[in-house]
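Worked example

This section walks through a single chain of length 99. The input is the sequence exactly as stored; nothing has been trimmed or padded.
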Amino acid sequence: MKEVRSNHMSYDVLELLTYDDLSSDLKVIHDTLGMQAVKLLMRNLGGSELYICKPGSLYGLVEKVFKRNSGNLRRTAAEISLSKNHIARLARRFGWKRD
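Given that input, the structure is written out below as tokens.
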């Protein structure tokens, strides 16, 4: 992630930040990505609300997995954590062809 510097926060302040200072959401980010990522997010996106979707809601990604699996619904569903029926509906809706 590219760091964007702004004058609204002293960078020395975040040097004092410890795990115990973090909210439960930031602790999840810390446990997954580390303290440096937490600090970068706070510096660059502080005050923003952020929704991180599941891979199955990115239809372009689902289509790539579907095609890589030659249209195999069961395998695609297992990889992307969606039901086989949902993959079939998406395939019909978007015209994805099964090999």
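What to look for: DSSP finds six helices and no strands in the chain.
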